[in-house]
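Appendix B, Record 12. Input sequence as logged:
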Amino acid sequence: MLTDKAAAEAGPFGGLVASAWQTVALTMRLYVEHYLSHCASLASPGVDEMRWLEPVRPGDRLSVRLTVLEAIPSRSKPDRGMVRAFSETLNQDGEVVMTMRPMSLIGRRPAGA
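Logged structural output:
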């Protein structure tokens, strides 16, 4: 990762950019603080199809848009289920800079509650 502005301007991105993993870390922070903190998150078996589509530059403001793709009740443990989602990280101009498909084990309320 280049931190020298002049050297970065001569590089492949034409300027300073964040590491892709810095973008992942910020995305996960937003995901945890604004989504998982409001539900009964138990764990995650992983993330699928992580893609970095555009560089993130100094001063960019990022937000996350999450679409739930499916919620599957556990067959063996009725107090939980799997939620699969599609996550898009956007910059201040609405450009999608990163996508991923997170999976989350989420606690469920008892039937009729």
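The domain at 14-107 is CATH 3.10.129.10 (Thiol Ester Dehydrase; Chain A).
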